[in-house]
Amino acid sequence: MDKINKCLKEWNATIEALGQGKQSLLIRTYKTTLKEFLLYPTVSYTRKDNYLDNFQNKYHSFVNENALPKKKGDKVEIKYYVTLENIAEKSAQSTGRLQKYYIWTPEHVKLYLGNRKAYIWALRVYELKEPFMAEHTHGALVYANLKNEVSLEGIKPVISDVEFNEVLKQL
């Protein structure tokens, strides 16, 4: 596919962690059938006064710097395309050993999961050749379809094949 309009909505700091190779996983309470999507930035965590408590200490300045997406009027900047390479089902307790691959605290992850199973999404992240300014999308909380398709020509992986294969081995 050389163009796409499907998006996963995610908090901007998490998107930037994925896009800068600081994170390679998303931990969810659900599976998905989407195998590829763009990352659409949101600001949900920044509405909480203590949002930094959800992130590992070493990432606090990174999270502060990337809390809000770049905007131009009502449009937000989309910079990353993702392929979902694997979903592993794990217990909430086993997610702590994967903290090398995400920026949240293990306590936050366990609180988010509660007594539910964890679905660990291994994401291969690519940077778009040119960022795309997308109109605000209404509707679905998790997914969105852009009005216009985004070109995937010239995308580049944000981490090497060797680094990504190591992530897959850990699952």
Describe this structure in words.
This protein has helices spanning 12-19, 60-65, 106-113, 161-170, and strands at 3-11, 25-28, 36-42, 71-72, 75-90, 118-134, 143-151, 156-157. With 171 residues, the protein is α+β, with helices and mostly antiparallel strands. It has one domain: Roll (Archaeosine Trna-guanine Transglycosylase, Chain: A, domain 4), CATH 2.30.130. A hairpin with a 2-residue loop joins strand 4 and strand 5 (75-90). It is globular and about 40 Å long. The model has no long low-confidence stretch (mean pLDDT 91).
Number of strands: 8
Could you list the spans in which at least 5 consecutive residues all have pLDDT below 50?
A: none
Q: Radius of gyration, rounded?
A: 15 Å
Going by CATH, the architecture would be Roll
Quick structural gist:
The chain has 171 residues and is α+β, with helices and mostly antiparallel strands. The protein is 19% helix and 39% strand.
Key phrases:
globular; alpha+beta; 8 strands; eight-stranded mixed sheet
Helix and strand arrangement:
Layout lengths: L2 E9 H8 L5 E4 L7 E7 L17 H6 L5 E2 L2 E16 L15 H8 L4 E17 L8 E9 L4 E2 L3 H10 L1
Parallel strand pairs: 1-3
Antiparallel strand pairs: 1-7, 2-6, 3-5, 4-5, 5-6, 6-8
